[in-house]
């Protein structure tokens, strides 16, 4: 009979520990930024094998999609990374010296950067700054100009172990006066293709304003917002109520951020067809979503009326306040100081610390 037998508590606790270890290994580690995940290779041999496997890199690129930092670059200067949390996010070479030539960053998307060489043929490169993997892209037949309006689109897919991405460039047409054309690079085919759709009308596109949201690429222009739908291959012009402001994403929608003094207002695109509604309709194209006032003790009183938004998504906003770069967390409502290295003429690109393989 086993009535008086003392249960083996040590064995039971050991099984519980192993089960918890497996749960963490399979379901928690992939959500960590790349820098943190690599650190956990030192825990044990099992974790080292797990994290170093190609399948883990694929799972991590799918699971970790929060903005980890901001890549910034002065004109003709070297890039550098401003991490949101330096303990968990970082890259081995933030100056991108592993590329074959000095480059300018043109766009970023989910851990990948699109860069352009400064000399010669102005070659485009796609790279992962954490793994230092890179690819040189073929030359396009279109002339993109000296400062191309480039948007990189990379969305990790469960079924694609090799990163598939697109690059969209809006450029002035050389065949039609006052028209904008769109050149698209498809990584699957490995070639550039000029879209059949054009947008007519005299306007200046602001190159660094480009952003992708739900299959549509948007740019700020001197008159309005230019949209190009990649799925439908169609363009549209949206009212922006002024040419100043910053485009970002919020709650899965396009948002436009405007600054007035020390008040930052965030408006979400609500209806792209409001201009076709009947007269007197109450439906508006933009709806106010958030009003943000940064902590003056963090940003400094002297910078209270000199804010420039560098990035915004549903989780975080990064703002240049005078010479201080700060972040604002939409959940905690806390303002955090990040760096004092960024200048007003910098170009900034959101970065996800990813292990995605090229």
UniProtKB/TrEMBL annotation:
Annotated F-box protein At3g26010-like beta-propeller domain residues: 106-233
Gene Ontology molecular function terms on file: ubiquitin-protein transferase activity
Organism superkingdom: Eukaryota
Pfam families recorded: b-prop_At3g26010-like
Protein's GO biological process: regulation of DNA-templated transcription; SCF-dependent proteasomal ubiquitin-dependent protein catabolic process
Source organism phylogeny: Eukaryota, Viridiplantae, Streptophyta, Embryophyta, Tracheophyta
Gene encoding the protein: LOC101254351
Entry protein name: BAC19.2
Assigned GO CC terms: ubiquitin ligase complex
